[in-house]
Protein: adenylate kinase
Organism: Dendrobium catenatum
Amino acid sequence: MSASIRLLRCLKASRAFSAVTTEAAAQFPASLMRGSLPAQSDMKERGVHWVFLGCPGVGKGTYASRLSQLLGVPHIATGDLVREELASSGHFAQELADIVNKGKLVSDETIINLLSKRLESGAAKGESGFILDGFPRTIRQAEILDGVTNIDLVINLKLREDVLLEKCLGRRICSQCGGNFNVASIDIKEENGKPGIYMEPLLPPSNCASKLISRADDTEEVVKERLRVYQAMSQPVEEFYRSQGKLLEFHLPGGIPESWPKLLKALNLDDSHEKRSAAA
Ligand SMILES: Nc1ncnc2c1ncn2[C@@H]1O[C@H](COP(=O)(O)OP(=O)(O)O)[C@@H](O)[C@H]1O
């Protein structure tokens, strides 16, 4: 049975999450594949089951999307699923907007329903494997995911907090093509032994420049609340996976040109892997 169907059944079978998680945890021994990267042949057949963790603005979407192209698995961002739902009209969209625009998390039940639907439609199209971005964000979500599928690896992206705020405030989306850009120019010099960091802006092409919009939840007040919510609700998820030996901490050294090759190296995905997949 696919992970998506199990995820959905798990949720439908019981509205009491605690019962689900106990049952789910018992069903799948956590030692299975714990802490190991799948072999390259396995990656091809099953597709990787990876998770990206990290604070708002850290760049989960950027690196998850690049890796999904490299490894040929879908990049599934629950924030995107929520925004698709927000774009629809109706009472539920308004309820969601009230939560998201305050920087709060939507309920575990809502997010699991959205994710299940996305996984099911992907499975129907023959997708296998995934890179999840923005899920799990609570211990309950992590336990439910653990009960329905075996996560191979969790990449925890790290960046200093003052940069996170700047990056969120600099985020722009082209209202026509949906492209993601960032107008923030980060150039913090080394100070008192604390390393500096340089990240150049990711500017849009001229045809997008006049169509840029910002996310409603990327205001200073809401980003600060999202960072607070991350520390309270999602930081424990890092510990959850650390204790399973699945967490790979990656401190971003700078912008994409500097960070991407280092991330590939940390994942044992070297240039030759990149070239092979480009040629395939
Ligand atoms: N796994 C999740 N659990 C609960 N709420 C979520 C989840 N994923 C996304 N959301 C909601 O969607 C919003 C946007 O998500 P995302 O784009 O991932 O934001 P961020 O930039 O903060 O990482 C979140 O602030 C939250 O309200």
